[in-house]
From TrEMBL:
Its main location: plastid. The keyword DNA repair does not apply. Its EC number is 3.1.2.-. Keywords: Chloroplast, Fatty acid biosynthesis, Fatty acid metabolism, Hydrolase, Lipid biosynthesis, Lipid metabolism, Plastid, Transit peptide. This is Acyl-[acyl-carrier-protein] hydrolase. It comes from Corchorus olitorius. It is an enzyme of class 3 (hydrolase). GO terms for molecular function: acyl carrier activity; fatty acyl-[ACP] hydrolase activity.
Length: 383
C-alpha cells in the first residue's frame, strides 16, 4: 500500500478500492488523498513523523461525501470566473454576474420569458454566487458555518419588478449581490439586463433569515456565520422599497382555488415547497381571460410559514376595486364559467390583485404567504 507524505496544513487523501481505483478530491479547506482497500485498512499520513491505521469502514461516510463533492465540483476557495456556468465575480470582488440564454422551454406562447423562468434565474444565480465564493457547505446555499449549526436559509420577503420580458434566444446578464438586513438577516438583490444593450429588464430584492433545520424555528445569526458572509455585504439596492403590509384575505375573496396539493417535484432540497410554486398557485386563481391581455409588472410576497408535502393549500385572490371593472360576480376557480368572468378590464392603467395562500385543516387555517401583484397591458405578440 502506498503512502503519501504531505504538509500538515495542506494534506491530501487518495482512495483506492479492490481494483485500485484512485481518486483525487477536495474537501473543505483541504485537499486530501487517502489510499484504501475496501476490506482492509487505511494508512493516513499527515506528516513525516505521524502515521496511523484506521478501519476502512470508518471512512465510508467521508468517502460518500467527497464523491458527491467531486461530482458537484464545489470550489473550496473563491473563484473569480466560473466557466461552466458562464459566471464571474463583479462589484469589486463581492457581486456575481451570470450570462444566460433564454431557452425554448423558458418562454410562453408569446415567445417571452415566463415569470417562473425569471424567478428560477434569481434562485439559481443566488446559489451560484455562494458557490463561487467558496463558502458553500452541504446544503441549499448554506455556508460551512450554517451546516455546523444545522441552519438553512428561508426567505421572508421578496419583490420583483419587470419592465420588459426578454425573448426567446436573447442573451441576458443576471447580477446579484448581498447586504445586511437588520441584525440577523441578509438582503439579496438582483438586476436582469440585456447583454447587448444593457437595458434593464427586471430588478428584484429579498430578505432572508436563518432557520434551524430540525426544530424549524427561526434562529439568530451565529458569529461564525456572520464572519463568513459579512465581507460580501455591500450597500446597494436594486429596488427602493416602500414597505407596506399586505392585508389578509378571508373566504369572502372573489376568487378561490381550494384543495391544492404539493407534488413531490414541488419540494426543494430543504424539504419544503419551493417559492416559485407558491407564485404559480397564486396566479392560477386569476381568470384566464385577464391573463391573456395583461402581464405582470410587479409582485411582492410576504412569507409567513413553510408548506410541506402533506399539506392542503387554498389560494385566495381579490382584485382592487379600481381593477374589478368587467370582472363581475364571485367565482370559484375549480369550476370557472366564462359568463361569470366577463370581459377583461379595458383600462390602460395598471391593475392590482391581493393574494393569500393558506394551509387548510379540520380546525384552523395557517397563512403561508401573502402577495400583491400589479399588471399592465401586454405588448403586441412577437411573430
Amino acid at each position: 500500500m502506498d503512502s503519501l507524505h504531505c504538509p500538515a496544513a495542506r494534506f491530501s487523501i487518495t482512495c483506492s478500492y479492490s481494483r485500485e481505483h484512485k481518486l483525487r478530491i477536495g474537501v473543505g479547506r483541504f485537499n486530501r488523498i487517502v489510499t484504501a482497500k475496501m476490506h482492509g485498512r487505511i494508512l493516513i499520513t499527515a506528516d513525516k513523523s505521524s502515521r496511523r491505521m484506521v478501519p476502512a469502514a470508518s471512512m465510508a461516510e467521508v468517502d460518500s461525501s467527497t464523491k458527491t463533492r467531486i461530482r458537484q465540483n464545489i470550489p473550496t476557495e473563491k473563484q473569480l470566473v466560473d466557466r461552466f456556468r458562464q459566471g464571474m465575480i463583479v462589484e469589486g470582488g463581492v457581486g456575481y454576474r451570470q450570462t444566460v440564454v433564454i431557452r425554448s422551454y423558458e418562454v410562453g406562447a408569446d415567445k417571452t420569458a415566463t415569470l417562473e423562468s425569471l424567478l428560477n434565474f434569481l434562485q439559481e444565480t443566488a446559489l451560484n454566487h455562494v458557490w463561487v465564493s467558496g463558502l458553500l457547505g452541504d446544503g441549499f446555499g448554506a455556508t460551512h458555518g450554517m451546516v455546523r449549526n444545522n441552519l438553512i436559509w428561508v426567505v421572508t420577503r421578496m419583490q420583483l419588478q419587470v419592465d420588459k420580458y426578454p425573448i426567446w434566444g436573447e442573451v441576458v446578464e443576471v447580477d446579484t449581490w448581498v447586504g445586511a438586513s437588520g441584525k440577523n438577516g441578509m438582503r439579496r438583490d438582483w438586476l436582469i439586463r440585456s447583454h447587448v444593450t444593457g437595458q434593464v429588464f427586471a430588478r428584484a430584492t429579498s430578505t432572508w433569515v436563518m432557520m434551524n433545520q430540525q426544530t424549524r424555528r427561526l434562529s439568530k445569526m451565529p458569529e461564525e456565520v456572520r464572519a463568513e458572509i459579512s465581507p460580501w455585504f455591500i450597500e446597494k439596492n436594486a429596488i427602493q422599497e416602500t414597505p407596506e403590509t399586505i392585508k389578509k384575505l378571508d373566504n369572502t375573496a372573489k376568487y378561490i382555488n381550494s384543495q391544492l396539493k404539493p407534488k413531490r417535484t414541488d419540494l426543494d432540497m430543504n424539504h419544503h415547497v419551493n417559492n416559485v410554486k407558491y407564485v404559480n398557485w397564486m396566479l392560477e386563481t386569476i381568470p384566464e381571460i385577464f391573463l391573456e391581455g395583461y402581464q405582470l409588472f410587479n409582485i411582492t410576497l410576504e412569507y409567513r410559514k413553510e408548506c410541506g408535502s402533506s399539506d392542503t393549500v387554498q389560494a385566495l385572490c381579490q382584485p382592487d376595486e379600481d381593477g374589478a371593472q368587467g370582472v363581475n360576480g364571485k367565482i370559484h376557480i375549480e369550476q370557472p364559467q366564462a359568463s361569470e368572468i366577463g370581459d377583461a378590464p379595458s383600462s390602460e392603467s395598471p391593475l392590482s390583485f391581493t393574494h393569500l395562500l393558506q394551509i387548510t385543516g379540520d380546525s384552523k387555517t395557517e397563512e403561508i404567504v401573502r402577495g400583491r401583484t400589479t399588471w399592465k397591458r401586454k405588448p403586441k405578440a412577437i411573430h
